[in-house]
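--- STAGE predict ---
source: upstream dedup step, 1 unique chain passed
mode: sequence only
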Amino acid sequence: VAARHELDIAFSLEPESAFLQQIRAEQLMLDRKLKDALEACDEALRLEPEAADCHLLKSRIYELLDRPGEAKASIDRAAALDPDAIEIAIAYGDYFNARGDSQAAHEHALAALQANPSSDTVNVLMGETLLALGDTEQAEYHAKFAIIQNPESRAALVLFTNIRMRKNPLSGLWWRFNSWIATLGNLKGALVLILGYLSFNLLATAAGDLGYATAESALTYGWLILVAYSWFGVPIYYRALKKELEGFRFNPNF
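--- STAGE serialize ---
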């Protein structure tokens, strides 16, 4: 509330400020008023068409709206304006990681790492990419390096937790499945879950009709076990994340 009040005062003094419009867009994005945030970005770009960082902000908003095509187009526009900016490489890396294209993400992560090897944000991007590629050891190296650079980096601690989950034999399967679902987007992810449910039920029904009672029970209970495993995986993950956040934040020897 206080931030919005200060922003309103600033606008009253400088109503045609592209910078203030972009700040407003970021605030609206945080408030999940995403369409209003896009309008604020468009107004900022009307006032300052060469603002590459505003196009990157639009890309983040489009990602939240689950509109990947427009998110990519916004990054492309930013790249046309400022091709050498490290933020462009990071944005492309994040975009391709979110789509499950880890090889493309790795190319951009390498470019960002060459430009600024000590950046915690860049090392998190490289760690996320290597984790997606299955290289947990190198991913952990970059996660730890990012934490050393910025112990308060939530993204680095989340990455470190994901690496630990991935290495765990029990939680690793859950983590991989959820990571894969996340790359599909909301609609496709929901469709996969629905099709999974229908497939299990159809197979169980077919097995029952053919007289395979044991197979029918196994399929029915198998689906229930899978659902329970998915449900239990969420609190286990957040407990692990909470533990890492607390451990790094309050450990006096770190």
